[in-house]
């Protein structure tokens, strides 16, 4: 985050070392940051494409570092996974999101929480989710767990048993960043998935890129055949919206409908859409 400065050529790039050092420092700070309450959750609206009505929200983690300011989630989640802090952080996130969702005046809205592979492999996720539901008193049907496709790369019997048990609790499972992994189709066949979340990279060039239009169409159709719902993420423009509506993608998410926002703004949005 500091610039190397100077502008002169050097044989090796000292910013690499600096970056490494900074990573190491951030890594060491993660655990304390959780205890100091530096993490928050933002909530981004998910809407139904037919009616434009609110379906729910995805909880996205934020870390405001006291010196560096906001650290991008892609960065700190990866660090937290490497250090194992993701276990505590993920637990905090799940409990926080469930408690907040349980407080919403509209009890038809769902909350989606991202789950790391590390949590699937190294914690009793079924126990964790049961406890979060019990403590928050959130109905299981209102909780969605988003799991990235790459997380399944090492999909084994144990993983599918865990997912099956989670589903038996009544929560729903979404396959995140769909299309970016390697063996998406076999996951759809083998794992108990309720929702396919089409990666933003397939949405970004709609409606101009005809190959992407075909791909999105095909995924939505596949979902319908497999009795799974589909959602497009990263919808930013009216043209993308029109295209996705025409395709019949049931759920949409992106800056066009709203950016991730804090609890206060999220509650305001829920109350406002309740009155419509
Ligand atoms: P993701 O799960 O794919 O989340 C979607 C990302 O796209 C979010 O980035 C969101 O802010 C961003 N986004 C939403 N709408 C738009 C749009 O219209 N245009 C563009 N350009 N971007 C949009 P964010 O919040 O930076 O999170 C990045 C990633 O960090 C997430 O990707 C997820 O993989 C991870 N992450 C975030 N929160 C958590 C968490 O609580 N637990 C875990 N395990 N991972 C998390
Ligand atoms: Ca997600
Ligand atoms: Ca995603
Ligand atoms: Ca992602």
Automatic annotation (TrEMBL):
EAL domain sequence ranges: 23-274
Protein name: EAL domain-containing protein
Lineage: Bacteria, Pseudomonadati, Pseudomonadota, Alphaproteobacteria, Hyphomicrobiales
């Amino acid at each position: 985050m500091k610039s190397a400065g100077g502008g002169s050529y050097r044989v090796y790039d000292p910013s690499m070392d600096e970056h490494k050092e900074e990573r190491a420092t951030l890594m060491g700070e993660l655990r304390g940051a959780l205890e100091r309450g530096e993490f928050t959750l933002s909530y981004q609206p998910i809407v139904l494409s037919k009616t434009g009505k609110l379906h729910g929200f995805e909880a996205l983690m934020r870390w405001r570092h006291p010196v560096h300011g906001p650290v991008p989630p892609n960065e700190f989640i990866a660090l937290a996974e490497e250090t194992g802090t993701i276990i505590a952080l993920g637990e905090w996130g799940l409990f926080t999101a469930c408690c907040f969702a349980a407080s919403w005046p509209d009890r038809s809205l769902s909350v989606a929480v991202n789950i790391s592979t590390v949590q699937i492999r190294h914690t009793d996720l079924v126990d964790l989710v049961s406890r979060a539901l019990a403590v928050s008193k959130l109905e299981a049907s209102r909780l969605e767990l988003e799991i990235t496709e790459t997380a399944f790369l090492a999909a084994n019997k144990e993983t599918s048993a865990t997912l099956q048990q989670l589903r038996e609790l009544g929560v729903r499972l979404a396959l995140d960043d769909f299309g970016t992994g390697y063996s998406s189709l076999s996951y759809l066949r083998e794992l108990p998935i309720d929702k396919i979340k089409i990666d933003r990279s397939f949405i970004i060039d709609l409606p101009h890129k005809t190959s992407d239009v075909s791909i999105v169409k095909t995924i939505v159709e596949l979902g319908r055949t497999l009795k799974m719902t589909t959602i497009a993420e990263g919808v930013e423009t009216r043209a993308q919206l029109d295209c996705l509506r025409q395709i019949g993608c049931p759920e949409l998410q992106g800056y066009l409908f709203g950016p991730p926002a804090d609890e206060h703004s999220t509650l305001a949005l829920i109350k406002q859409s309740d009155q419509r």
